[in-house]
Amino acid sequence: MKNISYYMFSYYGSKSKIIDLYPAPKHDTIIEPFAGSARYSLKYFDRDIYLYDKYDVIVRMWKFLQKCSPNDILSLPDFKQGDLVRDFNFDCIEMEWLVGFMVGKGRPIPSNKVSKWGAMRYRTDKIRIAKNLHKIKHWHIEHKQYTEIENIDAVWFIDPPYETKGFLYKHNKIDYNHLASFCKSRKGQVIVCEAQDATWLPFKSLPTNQRTSKGVSNEAIWSNEQLNLGHQCVLF
User: Which run of H or of E encompasses 49?
Assistant: First the structure.
């Protein structure tokens, strides 16, 4: 079940159902080079958080949320199934993008048409977002690709577009050999997310099958530290 404490908006590839399976941070600084909906950072929000993403929509939306008050979110217009988001007047494009992610389930770009799922959840999600805004005020958020990030001692939670399933993302062209070297060279604790069929690092299966709108996604993990996966101890 989704923990609403780790929720800000719906996004393709988010870890909402399995975020509790990942290792706890061992450093006070957390870096997410592929920020997306930043579920790991939301779980450990009181750390020194650095979010980066190549998709400027994601970055601008996170920065917009940092400036929002709870009332800004709660006063967003209501929608019903079939409404078109662009038919409504918003104060800024970032607000329109936020609503677009809220009314479409697990989308890689903001939706324009309100889905049945979005219409059912929209009012509740406004309350959830409003309650979580205080958690992100101190975060550092930048529009950068992973190759531009300084290598420092931190928890590196790396959740890139998956090798075989990440083609829907806006920026999905990844040199996975380069990314593998990047992950191995990071200082501190490194946690890398992927699917079980990925080969660019020696991934191990997480003890779960995450059900998505497309079926079952078999999640895997690589780390530079020893992990306990179910009853199995794995040393990478």
Answer: strand 48-52
